[in-house]
Request: fold
Amino acid sequence: MTADVIDSFRDTPDERLRAVLASLVDHLHGFVRDVRPTVAEWESAIRFLTATGQACTADRQEFILLSDVLGVSSLVETLNADASGDTTEATVLGPFHVTESPPRADGDSIDLVGRGEPCLVTGSVRAAGGAALPGASVDVWQCDDEGFYDVQRPDRQPPGNGRGLFAADEQGRFRFRTVVPSHYPIPTDGPVGELLRRTRRHPYRPAHIHFIAAAAGHRPVTTHAFVAGSPYLDSDAVFAVKPSLIRECALVDDPVRAAAAGLPNPFRHVEFDIVLRPESP
Amino acid sequence: MTADVIDSFRDTPDERLRAVLASLVDHLHGFVRDVRPTVAEWESAIRFLTATGQACTADRQEFILLSDVLGVSSLVETLNADASGDTTEATVLGPFHVTESPPRADGDSIDLVGRGEPCLVTGSVRAAGGAALPGASVDVWQCDDEGFYDVQRPDRQPPGNGRGLFAADEQGRFRFRTVVPSHYPIPTDGPVGELLRRTRRHPYRPAHIHFIAAAAGHRPVTTHAFVAGSPYLDSDAVFAVKPSLIRECALVDDPVRAAAAGLPNPFRHVEFDIVLRPESP
Reply:
């Protein structure tokens, strides 16, 4: 049976697709043979997958969430990143990169609400050898101080709150103002939330800011800066924490620096330097 | 990573669910490690699964179709049926058991349209030892002479066309009138159709009539009677053909038998005897 199904894909013109499908059928049938689902269990699986697809909207990606809580997203990112020691580790994209981040100027604030603890984020984008990457794009997105992304709370946050697309300066540096993000539960009102409840798993992610950094000639990296000391750093619901990505969120009590940053005093400061790998090894 | 994800399900109260999820994570991560998808390929997979869920409606089940073309449905049925030599083999439910079959009396016609080659179906439901199972329920559904189910063509077929729920008589026998079903393509206007096109697989199923037979104290069987001589018996798009389920669709040219059956002369005749296993082995 399994061999017949794999053989049915023999004329697939795209070799990669053929290989992926052969592996998929092999592993999927292996899973079925292992667990020997009853027909009722198979029907439950069909219902679950259908509900997961139907929970997706323009602003919500429940299948990414499923991939996340099963550790698949993190595994894919890790296998792709294949980071050598000194480049920035990748982690999951997550389900909230659903809108384009608005382009913003160096130093701008991505906080359009004005609630929460003020925070300055500074950093740089460099090549593995240490050379600055001027003009590198830095796409950032984060939740607010209550743990919600703009698309989750259109009544309380304007579109683009917590999001920004920045270009690194001539020294490869970037800076923006924001508020300290909160740890938060992933959305639990859909099929993935039901899965977590039935398995007694908590839905929380530790506080983090998402980044995608990209520069010509280099592999883009999708990653997070995690806030040191946040709850759930040791049990992230989506298995995305890597120790190398945890950053202090230092309290700065210095009116001169606050004024220079355009922030009230005191404020928090996160430094996040990103190192990209060359495109071809 | 894989061990961490499996461990995250450790507090699942339902032992069976815990075991299924552990096996799922193991096989799913094994698949990911084998094929090492790029992030773009992972995104394609997410889009495909999302589109598959969103193609489902009250009358259409695209995830069952996906399960079918990957041979999973047939594998699940086969593992569950675990037929001993003399009981009727199971095969897939398929995606068109989406409405309840209307109850009909012995000998009724399930053809509400009057187009196609008239056909008499007779058979019996018996226990493995040979004993008749009076009152056994026989749920049947089939496509029309053009290869479409009622729910696919609401403009050309009334609801319930090609469907009927019968009760076997005191001798465990059932009979109904219909038309010879056509071979047909599974729906190709959704994501599964796109998969078949990209892999150069044809979408056809050989001609068949679906049955679910059930009787107290016995395991119900979900199966088909396949029409002998139909195209695609050797390459069913959903891997559901079993030689034991192929039946002659004999031409009967006999005005007396035709009149007795309530059919024009000549007509076709299919005999399909079903043998159920006892509930507990």
User: Anything to note?
Assistant: Helices of chain B lie at 2-8, 15-35, 39-54, 62-69, 72-81, 191-198, 255-261. Chain B has a mean pLDDT of 95. Chain B touches chain A through 64 residues (CB under 8 Å).
